[in-house]
Records
---
Amino acid sequence: MIEIRSEFCPQNHPCPVMRICPEGAISQQGYGAPIIDHEKCTGCRKCSRACSTFEWVENAKAV
């Protein structure tokens, strides 16, 4: 599961990683930290390869 490490996100611009996600599972409200829709996320990890704010966590539970 992908988790957002918001403390490392500058949160001052549109998140460029939203365009990378093939499932459209990443959204953002204003310039806030990105939000992952875990229902849509397939775990391809393209986001975590593109930005260190996105972290793959094994056996994590969605909140």
---
Amino acid sequence: MTDESTGFFTRDALYGASPVQALGRFFVKYFNFRGRASMSEFWWVFGFLVLSSVAIGIIDRRFGVDIETIAEAVLVIPVVSLMCRRLHDSGRTGLLCLIGFIPVLGGIALLFMMALPTQGRAAL
């Protein structure tokens, strides 16, 4: 696959991303805190992570293993980088990700910010 067909390596957001494209970019841009992420990129990944978390939680309880903690440790960096890129796309600074450290209210505020529409090229 080329860069033009997938957009995996571009700094620009991929508007109208499919689930496969969104997940691919999520993992390829693991440490990329610059650039932008479209709403479709963010929400496909968010849905996948929620469903995966539920499934892993069920497995953890059923078999007494702690896969969820390992998964969270592995995914914390790409999730934060995706949120930073999504904030950039909505015209905000990626430093707003730090709001997530405020218990409960920070996560809710971040979730609302992830739903904000795309803005101009500011905050890159």
